[in-house]
Amino acid sequence: MNGWLLTALILAGVIAVIIKRLRGEAVNARELFVPPAVLIAIGVFTLAKTEGVTGTDITWTTAGALLGGALGALRGATVQLSARDGVLWQRYTGRTFLVALLSLLAMAGFGLLAARMGMHEYARPVQLAIGVSFLGEALAIGRRGLASGTPFAPERRKV
Q: Where are the domains of the chain?
């Protein structure tokens, strides 16, 4: 698949998730964890098939993933959780967007540092970075949701 097309599809998906969470949505474990897992898988696959990846690249990619996951967890701590109709609901807040903006700036700075220290541009799949960030957020929301005692929403049935 064309790289630009894949990027556009992923961007559209991320925007759709953000809009849904801005409005508020029921927290479903599958919808919380599957999208980050898919993005991470695409990113790892992209990195694995990329020629010329060095140990330096892998080290910086791993460090960036850890930072991205931590920043995602910080963002997840700002998501408003509440009970509605007997299930857990989530909604992004202004603080969520502030943390997201600060996270983008931090990751951009990290990327510049990594490039200056020898990391190749092609060794930084955007899908991996987004996926790890959303996984950190999902883990924080999931932990908080479980601690609340409010059940997660059941999976939606497609008829």
A: 26-148
